[in-house]
UniProtKB/TrEMBL annotation:
Belongs to the DAMOX/DASOX family. FAD binds at residues 44-46, 182. Keywords: FAD, Flavoprotein, Oxidoreductase. It comes from the Eukaryota. The gene is LOC108625005. It comes from Ceratina calcarata. Its cofactor is FAD. This is D-aspartate oxidase. InterPro entries: DAO, FAD-dep_OxRdtase.
Amino acid sequence: MKVAVVGGGIIGLTTALQLKNELRNVELTIFASDFDDTVSHVAAGLFRIGSSYSGPTEQVTREWIRDSYEYYDDIRKYVDASIAGVTSISGYLFANSSPDTVKNRWMENLVPIYRRVKDEEFRLVEGNWKYGSFFRTLITECNLHLPWAREKLNENGVKLKTMKIDSLKELASHWDLIMNCTGLGARSLCNDKYLVAMRGQVLKVKAPWVKTFFYGELDTYIIPGFNGMVTLGGSRNFDCENTKVCPHESAAISERCRGLLPGVIGKGEVVQELVGLRPHRERNVRVEAEWIFNGSSKAILVHNYGHGGYGVCTAPGTSKYAVKLAREMHKSSVAKL
């Protein structure tokens, strides 16, 4: 079977790895307009799923999240976990708006620790916070993880081609299975009017003394990664496609983070200011299979996109589900012959 994966970010690469794991003899090629400049590279990579995240049903959504956590947790146990950019991390979420803000229906029964903050722990940060939670989770550093994934794919004979795909339909003439992992690009490729850009801006700060993550409500976060680099955020600008760094936004992020954890800005050197466009889908994340036709040619097309700000977190789960749909459709087509 000839398989094309379209998209070179975390969704595309993880889908390709899942395909090679389950269908070892497939001839697999990944197409991407750019493998080194994706929204995945901007993400902090903390495994924290927002309560609004949604698949087609609650059962499927929980399956995606559980499978994703287990996937990354298995990598964390590898000898080369640091090369793969996956490790465990603990931290805090503080809020004033509501006690529900520090709760999380997806995470509380999944991660090894999720508890209320103790009275003395409120003093770890500035601000008179009313509510708080402490939890232990995972972090995936995409600047390490994506090169690791590409290397694994190369070792397994997968071809990576830098090439812009303008039509999924045209691929049907040459490929038996097409995995559409194009994120925001699916808006034009699939004419998906439910897909919009959710602009985000972050700062990368060199602050190796920060070992714990902190959230102040959900619009302020300090997330340490590998090599002493810390991500400060953030912003969510709905239906905004401006990819230029806004100095006023950087100043606001700095001020909020300094107000939460004094010293992270000032002592810490700002290394980068980055902008990414999250592929936000107003309906649920789209993981669906269909047939695609080009004249007398046809192929199985499986969509896997629209993860919003949770692509890094849930890529393994949706990829596993996408491959399952592909196998079921292929099996059904063979049975009819």
